[in-house]
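Example record

The entry below shows one chain as it appears in the dataset: sequence first, then structure tokens.
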Amino acid sequence: MDWFHCNQCFSSSGSKFAVSSCGHICCEACIKAERCVICGTSCNYRPITDQMKPQEKVFFMDPVKLIQSRLEHISQIADFQRTQMERATAYFKHKSVELEKHLKEVTQQSYRQIAELNRENADLKSQNMELKREMAELKKPLSQRRGSPGQFKTNGVQRISLPVAVTSPVTPHLRTMRYV
């Protein structure tokens, strides 16, 4: 790291270095207790070592290597998210095909039911018309319905009326017998 140096004496090798809370880098020889030798503010110093927190180490990394490591990480994230989206898309495509198939079946079944109901409706209308004609014929006076005695017409069909005999009920007669 050719940019790394003490901000006071500009030494870049040799002694240990520390970074101040105000953002200045100083070598061990230039550090003054509780005051920054560069700006004069009161501050704390942290030694620059491998034991620093990762969020502090990034300030001392090579920017190209930092970008490469971040890009690798971003690439992994993008691959993971792309794979998840592909799985979701495949699932919804499959579900869509299933639903379209089911919709087609239900539609065909509905058309069959509608056709069957239309046929049934036509049959019922025909029966209804027939019953209306018969009722109209039955409402006519008997004299208009008969072509000749004992016959009458319904729907153009000649029907014969058979005579009905009315008889009295049979009752047993009690006979009294005399014995002599």
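Notes for this example: The CA atoms of residues 50 and 57 lie 8 Å apart. The two ends are 164 Å apart (CA to CA).
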